[in-house]
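Hi, here's the filled form for the chain we discussed.

Project: internal
Contact: R.S.
Residues: 752
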Amino acid sequence: MQLKKTFTILFLTASLFINNTFAQQKANLTQYVDPLIGSAKHGHVFVGANVPFGAVQLGPNNIFEGWDWCSGYNYASNTITGFAHTHLSGTGIGDLGDISIMPATGKLLLEKGKKADDQDGYLSNFSHQNETAKAGYYSVWLDKYSIKAELTATERVGFHQYTFKKGAENPHLVIDLIEGIGWDAPVSASIKQLDATTLVGHRHSTGWANDQRLYFVIKLSQPLKSIALYDSTVVKSGTTLSGKKLKAAVSFNAINNNKLQIKVALSPVSIENAILNLKTELPGWDFASTVKSADAKWEQELSKVKIEASNTTKKVFYTALFHTMVAPSLFNDVNKDYLGTDKKVYKKAVFNNLTTFSLWDTYRAANPLFTILHPDKVSDVVNTMLAIYKQQGKLPVWHLMGNETNTMVGYHAVPVIVDAYLKGYRGFDVKLAYEAIKQSAMQKTDGIDYIQQLKYIPADKVNESVGKALEYAIDDYCIAQMAKALNKTADYNYFSKRSKLYSLYFDPSVQFMRGKLTNGNWRSPFDPFSSKHREDDYVEGNAWQYTWLVPQDVEGLIKLFGGDKPFTNKLDSLFTLPLDLGTNGSPDISGLIGNYAQGNEPNHHITYLYTYAGQPWKTADLIRKIDKDFYSSKPDGLCGNEDVGQMSAWYIFTAMGFYPVNPANGAYVFGTPLINSASISLAGNKKFNIKAVNNSADNKYIQKVVLNGKPYTKSYILHKTITAGGSMQIYMGNKPSASWGVKPEDRPISTK
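And the returned structure, exactly as it came back:
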């Protein structure tokens, strides 16, 4: 009897433990992350293993087939040519793909395969049925070699685990220092065997980023049998080789227990620092534990926003949140050493140096999201930008691996810095920050010199004049706001005037922003639908799309149209008239509703403009359509380039019910929540809880808002209200409210 009682207690205890463990697993938010979302068509997302903001993005590369392989991988492919340690996510240009390793068996092949059935090159086919992608973990079965490949990572170390079939013939690795993605090509490389399990070297390359420098150490879990070093395809004697196009073939007698593990640590500074990174971050060989640690790091970050919604919405939401944390990525070592833009080594910095700033995209929503969810990283972003300013003489435009690419237009480090300052961040040199943002606006390039004279940019003198001018006006508005906060009255007045120069491009006779020639005439003929990629008056867009790019002064834009009614009438037409770009239109113009393009960032605020004119229900209608048509949990679940987190940041904000139309005024405009509730964890152990009451597919219109127990009639909410913590109930209904958000005094305000 006693034995039976003891057994019952043990059984119940075990059941409770199992149930508790299952409940914990069930509660994990990483289960909703699917890194394959956005890997098809034009999403260009990174697929592989990484940790939040990690320097290493370890993942598979396909045979490169063009623009849709900018990240090295596209879901349309079924080939793998190697597993590389650096990747971009969602960009429109391909680069990186450093230090590619391909496990193989059988005859040694030195040339990378060029097509799926290539028998003379190293590569393998694979099936998506035998592929697993999770936060911090990736695995795939290599059909050709019967190898199970598994990948995970720490911040600066990639960890490979390859399971070979028993008795595999001639198991070996091809380490390719030639291979890169897209524009990337090697400039110099070296590889050296230190001992039977350790290789070190470097790979310097040029591409989108002109001068990329990377050092590495490769640690093997078992001694190699032999190593052959190749310059191109010519074998060289010895265990050390320097050159330009290097490869190494590493062979083994047999694979111990059929499992080969490889650790690869990177450094932008030196081989010695790569070794230090390895010893510090991943001294052991416990692959499962490293996977668990990577998952825990993602869980910690994802847990900053806990939502209630359908499983599909959770999958889209948490994958989007995941995608906002691939970059900016670390560009330093564990001792805080980093390589500056001036190619000098800066030792033991007081901040974490970062890279991959896609600012033309991310200043709109991805960077503002940082100020809510990642307050500990905001100063790192600003300090990196200020270091770049000191090293290259200007703030970053599109910075990559210690290089200025000068891609896209505007000086959009400005709104990021100003937004941080106005929201109370002070972990940087404010005087230097103001000097840097002002210098950005006083350059003599890309038409900025015309703006300095308070003149329009002539379309016959400067390409993309309208697109550039509208972006400059946003940045100048931000400078004016920081000048005001610092009591710099003259600067405030001057930059405020510059922020209004958008009006010089508005032709009231056609109600479009359009190019104006040196002689003062409008450029003719004029077709508001037409777009000639990077060769007209706009930037990856047309007049229909760019006419609305005045998020810093929506009230002023409404006045140009003659009031709310003509403004909303024109806005209605944007979403109804069919698109006709003509020849040579930009592939970035995607995710279409009429002429509106969700797939391209200058459009992202437009749906929210109805709220400024007292018609918030139209914003709600469009957001629900965008959610339904352009975001899904499938591989083609993004309608355009992810653009380093911006496409996903739009979704994160929008799903919670609001969006930063103005990138630096500390306010978010209400739309329609896509989730039922959200709890945002904030600094100081505070929380801001959002409840969408009676939310459903039909109940998409906000009826009223209750904030901290009191009626709240504004159709916007302030950043400081959210970060103070509290609760908000958004009551939803199936018909537009006749009163909520309609009165002029309740509408969003561009500038107080």
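Let me know if anything looks off before we file it.
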